[in-house]
Design brief:
Structural class: alpha+beta
Helix content: 40-55%
Strand content: 15-25%
Number of strands: 5
Order of helices and strands: HHHHHHEEHEHEE
Radius of gyration: 21 Å
Largest sheet: 5 strands, mixed
């Protein structure tokens, strides 16, 4: 029996409209995005299988590149899921731009995780901030291989001056899945901090993102 044959009060989309998205389970929310199921499976059944296969919502977000291998998940459904994820990422970015980054550390972490955790290669990110710690720009000046990224302090200083930034938050990902900062990460951070200090730009933090984990240099006393 398809979802259209369910009582109206039990259908995910109708319940969402009547009681709000918070009233739905994870599987029901994913089912709303999928819209339809496959032969013998409702959209809710397919959503449950996806969540079980990828280990929940976080795993599903991380596994976007593997969705093509899921039977019954065609291009249209993959596009709908990708669009929803991108909307969430852009919403978090707008939230950062609307307020002081340091007054919403959760938003910073969420944005960085959503932006970096599924990247197959290392990416170095700069969140340039003004004197009130509002976000001026988010840039990805360097991309690397699976193991390392070449980050040039001179280019970072030039970018800071071009943005007229007063502070910056750095972030990069570890595709290997190990969130622990390496000695090279610590040395790079110190070099960037010292170079930016010459132009009165303060390094507020450096996050290392690996999967659903994010490590803060500031919280570990590494700045």
């Amino acid at each position: 029996m398809g979802i259209s044959d369910w009582p109206a009060a039990e259908r995910p989309r109708e319940r969402l409209l009547a009681a709000g998205a918070a009233s739905l389970s994870d599987a029901e929310l994913v089912a709303v995005l999928l819209r339809t199921g496959t032969r013998g499976k409702t959209a809710v059944d397919l959503a449950r299988e996806l969540l079980a296969r990828f280990g929940g919502i976080a795993g599903l977000l991380d596994g976007q590149g593997l969705l093509g291998a899921v039977k019954g998940l065609g291009a249209a459904k993959r596009a709908q899921l990708a669009a929803a994820i991108e909307l969430a990422r852009r919403s978090l970015k707008e939230s950062l731009a609307a307020g002081a980054a340091l007054t919403s550390p959760g938003a910073v972490r969420d944005y960085l995780r959503l932006t970096l955790k599924a990247r197959p290669h290392e990416v170095f990110v700069c969140l340039w901030l003004d004197a009130q710690h509002r976000v001026l720009a988010v840039e990805e000046p360097f991309r690397g291989t699976l193991t390392q990224t070449s980050v040039y302090p001179r280019e970072i200083v030039k970018a800071a001056l071009a943005r007229n930034a007063a502070a910056v938050i750095f972030a990069h990902n570890h595709p290997s899945g190990a969130a622990q900062p390496s000695q090279a990460d610590e040395l790079l951070t110190r070099n960037l901090r010292d170079a930016l200090a010459l132009v009165d730009v303060k390094v507020l933090d450096h996050f290392v993102v690996a999967g659903s984990q994010s490590i803060s240099f500031a919280e570990r006393g590494l700045l």
